[in-house]
Amino acid sequence: MEEFEVSQAAKKTKTVYISTIFSIALVLLMLGMLGLILVHAKNLSNYVKENIVLNIIVDEGAKETEVLAFKKNLDNNIAVKQTQYVNKEVAQHNLTKDLGEDFVNFLGYNPLLSTIDVYLKADYANNQNIDALRKSIEKDPIVKEVVYQSSLIDMVNKNINTISLIVLGFAGILLVIAIALINNTIRLAIFSQRFLIKSMQLVGATKNFIRQPFILVAALHGIIASFIAIIILLGLLYYAQQELPEIIILRNFTEFGFVFISMIAIGIFITAISTWFAVSKYLRLKIYDLYR
After folding, report:
1. Per residue in 155-165, pLDDT tens?
2. What is the pTM of this model?
3. Where are the transmembrane segments (predicted)?
4. 281 and 160 assigned to the same domain
C-alpha cells in the first residue's frame, strides 16, 4: 500500500514537472518569436536605409582616372557602405534595355552622363548626414550635381521610428505578461510540494538547504523549456523562409544566437527567482496555513 502511494506521488510530481516545462516553453516561445520579429524589423530597417541612393552626376569633361580616384575616396568615407560607377556606355546600355530600343540611333548621340551611385550605412542614412556629405562632395570640380530624394528619406526615417516605438512598447508589455505567467506556473508547481517543504523544515533543515534543490530543479526546467522553445522556433523560422525566401536577406546568425541565448538566460533566471520566492512563502507559513 505504501509503495503504491509513493508510486502515485511520483507520477503526480512527474506530471506537474512536465506540465510546468511545457508551460514555460510556450511562454519562452512567445518571447523568442517577439525577439526574432525585433531582429527582422531592425534588419529590414537597415536594409531599406542602406538602399537609399545618392546619384553623383559627373562632369562631362572629367577624366576616367579622376572619376575612379574620386570613387576610391568615397569608398574610404566612414558614412559610405559602397559605391557603383556607371559610365556613359553602361548607362546607355541600361536605358536601351529598359526602353526596348536604341535611343542613340534616334538622337544621333548619347546624352547621358557618367554617374556614381553612393549607398550609405544605415546609421548615416538621414537628411542631416546626407546634406553634410552632399556639400562635401559638391566641392570637387568633377562633380556636376548630387541628386537624392530628401522627402523619401524623411518619410522612411519617420515611419521606422514610429514602428520601432510601437514594437518596443508591445515587447515591454509582452515581457511583463511572460514573467507573470512563468511566475504563476512555478507557484502552482511549488504549491504541490508545500507539505514536503514544511516537513523538511520541521526535521531541522535550514531554509537555504531546502531552497537549493528546488531552485536547481527549476533552473533545469528553465533550460529544458528553453531548448524546446528554440527547437520549435527554428522550425517556424525554417518554414517562414521556405514560404517567404525574400526574408533570407534579413538573416543574421549572430543576432539569432543572441535571441536564443537570451531565451535560455530568461528561462533560468525567471524560474529560479520565482522558485526562491515561492519556497520562501511556504517556509514562512504555519502548518495549519498549508491547508488553506
Report:
1. 877 887 787 78
2. 0.71
3. 16-39, 160-182, 214-238, 258-279
4. yes
